Amino acid sequence: MxxxxxxxxxxxxTPTSTSRRAALRAQxxxxxxxxxxxxxxxxxxxxxxxxxxxxxxxGINHKSDGSASSTQITPPSATKTGVYxxxxxxxxxxxxxxxxxxxxxxxxxxxxxxxxxxxLNELSTRGEIRLQxxxxxxxxxxxxxxxxxxAAMAAAAADxxxxxxxxxxxxxxxxxKEEGAGYTDDQLRKEFASEAGITGANLTRFQHIYDTxxxxxxxxxxxxxxxxxxxxxxxxxxxxxxxNDKLWEGWEQLGNNPTPDELLKAIDAAK
Length: 271
What we know:
Helix 2 (107-126) links the parallel strand 2 (97-103) and strand 3. This protein is of the alpha+beta class. Residues 1-17 and 47-66 have low confidence and may be disordered. The protein has helices at residues 15-64, 107-126, 147-160, 164-173, 185-195, 200-211, 216-232, 260-270; strands at residues 83-86, 97-103, 130-136, 240-243, 246-247. It is globular and about 85 Å long. The chain starts with 14 loop residues before the first helix and ends with a helix.
């Protein structure tokens, strides 16, 4: 109860008592309004704190589920457009640039790799050609499992530890006979890495990059840019070759296992 304001006992309200009562009511209303504001602020703060906690929990779960890490990597042997260059320091002056468009799930890509892969690698090692790979993943659009993307991400992670060429070859050497059967994470993380010679601290780093999907953005953008480039070249699918950025279809007339010099002669003719 409010303390009474002292004054003479009378039924008639004086101007002074009336103003005091009005001031008291105003004070009570102000206190009530302040209490209401404090309650509203408390509710808002509670909602914000709960949202922050939820965001942290979702963020932890997001990463633990193997979603993309915020730290994304462009492999050192590749451009941001997704093109890997093998042995760039060995390329001779005026050597032709050979670009191979490939998908790790594509059976015909494996057939080409079996027929021409070693010869291309040798010509690249000799500096006779600038060998480039543009890895596509569009087969994932019709084959369940994201096997093209996961293989491409693993190859990109292998490039970070200096083993792109060996890992690339290991993936193709183990491509399933049945299209769409795909690759297991165990194969991509362990078996192919071992075959490519990724060991010790490099293996730990490779697996961390793969597990946290740090090359996912690079792989996705490489596919998008590759599709635009293939459209410009009027190429319907993989595998596809370009020599000095122009479509080269002569590789299909080479037959199986030409010698490196025979392959180089055909490439030079395409220039």
